[in-house]
Design the sequence.
């Protein structure tokens, strides 16, 4: 069971806006920045959002992140078929003294 | 181009040992903390261990503490993971990843290797 809770699945049609949630606690999301990873099956994870709301070079502006209290969200607008992948949130946990990941959300583009 | 290439994976019996290597290139290796993250078949990501730039400070996940040891050779731009007393539940793809300038407080890994499969089975 993961320290951070994500819905196991999400879906949307091309062009739609989809939001993936990540719920934690005061020892992790509540006091640390959140990062998001995209993983296409068979490939290594790729950082798509860092420091809660920053996009690495090359990541489309359709991807955005936010945080409120002990929860964080990844929003993907103008959904495209290439966005179909697993998405993981991650943050540092002060109690566990290490990074923790969410269980992952499988995004399907219908 | 930043690149990490893992090696050393394979099939090992329960209780056995294995040493993974991750050769890095394309960045100043000695300026960045390094991390190992694993993914069991069909499961999510699990942080395993991290090491600071000098190699003096190391951090471990609870499931591997006391059995795994991370180290680095800054002269060879390589990070290692020595895995002892392996269990069936250690079966996973092991990724090495480039972190920030320190381990503590960091969960942002901007470059990952392709991963190496470790299978623990009798």
Sequence:
């Amino acid at each position: 069971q993961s320290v951070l809770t994500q819905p196991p699945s999400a879906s949307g049609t091309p062009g739609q806006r989809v939001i993936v949630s990540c719920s934690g606690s005061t020892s992790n999301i509540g006091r640390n920045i959140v990062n998001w990873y995209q993983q296409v099956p068979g490939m290594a994870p790729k950082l798509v959002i860092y420091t809660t709301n920053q996009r690495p070079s090359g990541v489309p502006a359709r991807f955005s992140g936010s945080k409120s209290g002990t929860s964080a969200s990844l929003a993907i607008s103008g959904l495209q078929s290439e966005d179909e992948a697993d998405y993981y949130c991650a943050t540092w946990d002060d109690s566990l003294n290490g990074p923790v990941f969410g269980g992952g959300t499988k995004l399907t583009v219908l | 181009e930043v690149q990490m290439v893992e090696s050393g994976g394979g099939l090992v019996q329960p209780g056995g040992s294995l040493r993974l290597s991750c050769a890095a290139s394309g960045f100043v290796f000695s300026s960045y903390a390094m991390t190992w993250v694993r993914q069991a078949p069909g499961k999510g990501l699990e942080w395993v261990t991290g090491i600071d730039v000098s190699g003096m400070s190391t951090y471990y996940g609870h499931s591997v503490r006391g059995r795994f040891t991370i180290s680095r050779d800054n002269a060879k731009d390589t990070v290692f993971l020595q895995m002892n007393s392996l269990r069936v539940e250690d079966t996973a793809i092991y990724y090495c990843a480039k972190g920030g300038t320190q381990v503590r407080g960091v969960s942002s890994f901007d470059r990952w290797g392709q991963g190496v499969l470790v299978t623990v089975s009798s």
In short: The first strand of chain B starts at residue 3 and ends at 7. Chain B touches chain A at residues 35, 37, 44-47, 50, 59-62, 95, 104-110, 112-115 (CB under 8 Å). The mean pLDDT of chain B is 97. The CA atoms of residues 98 and 110 of chain B lie 6 Å apart.
